[in-house]
Write a structure and sequence with these properties.
The protein is of the alpha/beta class and 573 residues long. The protein folds into four domains: 87 residues, no CATH class; 64 residues, no CATH class; 171 residues, Rossmann fold (3-Layer(aba) Sandwich); 206 residues, 3-Layer(aba) Sandwich (Rossmann fold). The chain has 23 helices and 23 strands. The strands form four sheets. Strands 12-13-11-14-15-10-16 form a seven-stranded parallel sheet, with helices on both faces. A seven-stranded parallel sheet has the order 19-20-18-21-22-17-23, with helices on both faces. Strands 7-8-6-5-9 form a five-stranded mixed sheet, with no helix packed on it. Strand 21, helix 20 and strand 22 form a beta-alpha-beta unit. The chain is globular and about 85 Å long.
Length: 573
């Protein structure tokens, strides 16, 4: 094993990995770790990764070997690897696929060449309930209805099954991709989008057909979904996050494929048509009249002979959809997301029910190739006001209330004023985004800006988005509805005034709103954080995923922004 005291990694026996940020080899080591390690902490100088079973299994499912992982660790390690680490990695990686789901003579079976392992699993609580009759030493019969539940049970006991049982064909639907879109622009599936589809489809083999594609916002995940539809050529159900997103999918499908308008329908709160390509929201699918009642729209999953179900923004998949997804394992399933991080901890359910990660490209790689915009991230720290009730309110508040008080720090409005003035060029398109409606309304009123919240009607929302895209409006205030699935390609400045506690996925989604490729200066992402409060702790956690992708936050004081404004004023004189 190679190692060098000048290297940036310290690999520890508990499968944690420490990475020195100030080391010249930091970027290469970070990129080498990203495919198979999970970033847990990212303070200024030492980042902590963990070699978790799920991160290793996702890497294995994407084709990375244990030896490749061990080699990456050894290449960048300061010291010899602890003797248990290579053994542990090989053991954990080998667990993926040790048991397989296959179809034999038309019947579903759980198969393993390791009869002793199969015997052990058959005795495990939670697994044995889903096993049918024993066929022989290496296989059990499985009821098709238990296919999803068995996969969940197996990953829970540490032996994720490789599902090679295949899929129902689904009703055929010829889908051709245009070379020139209806809107008149040349259209070509980019190389990385094509590779993502090939990794998912696997030429129609049973090893394809289920899995997750991870690409940053602005990299064209919708195009990946459309190209997958064309590759498979079957009736398709697309589930996504909002009516806005449904409309966006419909526009893109009709613009870039040869499908007729009559073949693409919307299944939302406003329209419930079902066609060969049906676009639905998670909200309508998980609607139920009573809290403990049935979900009447779950029937959508069986209304047609779907050959493909696409789960857009799969990291936001509601828990009830997991339940129904467990029942439809015979359908091909494609998950699209910018991050596999789920704040509810259900990453294992995504792995077992939608499928493992099949393709992933680091955000910085796409940035370097010009497919997404360069972005500069700034964390602006400011104090609570010492006069009035600011600091005293925080000091005496209950622990659960401190985060909101810090998030709604009134000083943030003054910093927003400075940033709006700083980015007031004709080419600037600014989004101010936050968590708390009272704070957002105050900013919208003070600066006379349009505000979009969950209460804004869909037609008004679409009108404002359209005017922003056309340049008629150059500044928008958004609530959490702006976190995902909105297409505002010219936005180049994001000012985040508050967020959902330590949500890594939200931070990634928000940065993604300004990553559409554009000419000129880099995009700017400002996050305003009240120093010496709980908000700072959560801010560090929010930034984990983006740090893993190669972004770093320049830490600024509010006085730095004031100086920027003063310097800009002098230059303009």
């Amino acid at each position: 094993m190679q190692y060098n005291p000048a290297n940036p990694l310290i690999v520890q026996g508990d499968r944690t990995v420490l990475l020195e940020v100030d080391n010249p080899l930091y970027p290469q080591a970070r990129d080498a770790l990203a495919p198979f390690a999970e970033l847990e902490k990212s303070p200024e100088h030492i980042h902590t990764y963990r070699l978790s079973p799920l991160s290793l299994w996702n890497a294995a499912a994407a084709g990375m070997t244990a030896d490749a992982m061990i080699d990456a660790l050894a290449t960048f390690s300061k010291f010899p690897l602890p003797t248990n680490v290579p053994t542990d990695l090989r053991e954990l990686v080998s667990r993926y696929g040790r048991v397989q789901l296959r179809r034999v003579d038309g019947m579903l079976r759980l198969i393993s060449s390791d009869g002793h392992l199969l015997e052990e699993l058959a005795r495990r609580k939670g697994v044995r309930d889903f096993l049918g009759d024993r066929i022989d030493e290496t296989s059990f019969a499985i009821n098709d209805a238990f296919r999803g539940m068995l996969k969940q049970a197996l990953i829970a006991v540490g032996y994720p099954a490789e599902d090679l049982a295949g899929y129902t064909e689904g009703a055929a639907l010829a889908i051709g991709l245009r070379e020139v879109s209806v809107s008149g622009h040349p259209f070509r599936v980019r190389d990385y989008q094509r590779l993502a589809v090939e990794a998912f489809h696997a030429g129609g083999d049973v090893r394809g057909g289920s899995g997750v594609i991870v690409l940053p916002c602005g990299a064209g995940k919708t195009i990946v979904g459309i190209a997958a539809m064309a590759a498979i050529g079957k009736n398709t159900l697309v589930l996504t996050t909002s009516t806005t997103s449904v409309e966006q999918w419909r526009r893109e499908i009709l613009d870039k494929t040869d499908l007729d308008d009559s073949l693409v329908s919307l299944y939302t709160g406003e329209s419930k048509a079902i066609s060969p390509v049906t676009l639905a929201t998670y909200q309508i699918v998980t609607y139920r009249p009573k809290k403990d009642g049935d979900f009447p729209h779950f029937t959508l999953f069986n209304e047609r002979d779907w050959g493909l179900i696409i789960y857009d923004e799969v990291h936001l998949l509601p828990a009830p959809v997991f339940r129904v997804t467990a029942d439809i394992q015979a359908r091909r399933r494609l998950g699209l997301t910018a991050t596999l991080v789920r704040e509810d901890g259900r990453e294992e359910d995504v792995f077992s029910l939608i499928g493992p990660k099949k393709y992933d490209v680091p955000w910085r790689v796409l940035e370097q190739k010009g497919w997404i915009a360069e972005a500069l991230c700034h964390e602006v720290r400011l104090a609570l006001p010492s006069t009035g009730s600011g600091r005293m309110d925080y000091a005496v508040a209950e622990w659960r209330d401190k985060f909101r008080i810090a998030s709604e720090n009134p000083v943030k409005e003054d910093v927003v004023a400075q940033l709006l003035g700083l980015h007031d060029g004709p080419e600037d398109r600014i989004i101010v985004i936050g968590q708390y409606l009272r704070q957002l309304r105050s900013i919208a009123e003070r600066f006379n800006l349009p505000l979009i919240t969950g209460q804004t009607g869909n037609s008004e929302r679409e009108d404002l988005y359209g005017r922003f895209r056309d340049g008629e409006i150059r500044k928008l205030v958004l609530s959490k509805v702006g976190n995902f699935a909105i297409d505002l390609p010219d936005a180049n400045v994001m000012i985040q005034i508050s967020g959902t506690f330590g949500s890594r996925q939200e931070e990634a989604q928000r940065l993604g709103r300004i990553l559409r490729p554009k000419e000129g200066e880099p995009a700017r992402f400002y996050t305003l954080v009240t120093r010496d409060t709980r908000e700072m702790d959560f801010a560090h956690h929010r930034q984990l995923f983006l740090t893993e992708q190669g972004y770093s936050y320049e830490i600024l004081d509010e006085s730095d922004i004031t100086k920027w404004v003063e310097d800009a004023a002098k230059m303009s004189q």
